[in-house]
Design brief:
Blueprint (H helix, E strand, L loop, with lengths): L18 H19 L7 H26 L1 H9 L17 H6 L12 E4 L2 E3 L73 H11 L5 H7 L24 H13 L6 H10 L34 H6 L4
Antiparallel strand pairs: 1-2
Helix pairs in contact: 1-2, 2-3, 2-8
The protein binds protoporphyrin IX containing FE (HEM).
The site of protoporphyrin IX containing FE has 16 residues, from helix 5.
Length: about 325
Amino acid sequence: MNNPGKLLIDADAPRDVPRNSQLRALINAVLDSVVAEGQVPPGEVFDEAQRIVRWHYQWMGVHEFLPHIVGEGRVKDLMRCHREDRCYRWRHEPFIPAEFAVAAYRFGHSQVRTGYAVNADFVAPKIFDASIPNTLPDPNDLRGGKRAPRRFVDWSLFFELGGRVLQISQRIDTTLSAPLFELPFNAPGLPSANPASLAQRNLLRGLVFGLPSGQDMARAMRIKPLKSDDLGDVSHLKLHRSTTPWFYMLREAEKCEQGKRLGPVGGRIVAEGVPRGPRRGQAVVPAGGPGLEALPGQEGWRVHHHRPAEVRRRGVA
Ligand code: HEM
């Protein structure tokens, strides 16, 4: 929730695939277990369940997700580094930097596979199939907003829960699965004239927000930028010296980390965007696991975007 009453994850939204309704089920299960334990007065049950879910989520973010995505060494360096040495220095209230939302964190688009086995009975050959009309109640793809018993996810096909074949993510690189070039829907609240290609949308969004190039971001972070040769395939567009940041960070992952994780610029922006403690050098979530004070959620952690003018002012430089 951003503001009270405004749900940000909507399982019925067209781009949200079936997993989100199962996340709601998880939150309800935590709520039920808090009630069953009977340790908390009835009026505080929701707050307690919210705290448990939030802490676990943050713990997984710092100790499991980030080491995978940006590398253990970089996470440790960042956890140690002082506020003055970070690119992202919020003062009064945390916010999501535009470089994070519009470029770095969109790395996930390159990891999406063409299709998925959702469970033993339902294999969707394409994650989205633009040839299937949206009026069908249970289409043979994974668009959201369509509830049907066969659409519930068997998580053991996605995570190591016991012996079956995993559908691991694609590498982080400058290729995208074909269905993402033909999105059969528009994201809620965005203009209907949006292009069907997700890549095109990402590139346009970078332009509209006036983001600096990947090379400029690297220099501002005192990181050696990619060489022109690393971007030779876009030199005919004159993008090899000044590269749109979403593309730059994908190429960086490809060149510097063989697509196994983000490179130095993208990794830094993603790692800095993950919530940490409000005081210098203090990690949001203690290494021992959930359970200590001073998580931002407890002090009304809120997330919002800045207008483009503010974005430029607050850029990484
Ligand atoms: C099938 C999978 C996915 C689809 C269809 C999808 C689709 C989209 C669409 C349509 C947008 C809005 C684009 C625009 O017009 O600017 C978007 C934004 C975004 N996506 Fe994805 N996405 C997927 C997976 C992911 C993953 C795995 C990640 C990250 C790990 C991710 C990160 C983001 C971010 C950070 C934004 C910008 C959000 C904002 O500015 O508020 N997406 N995505």
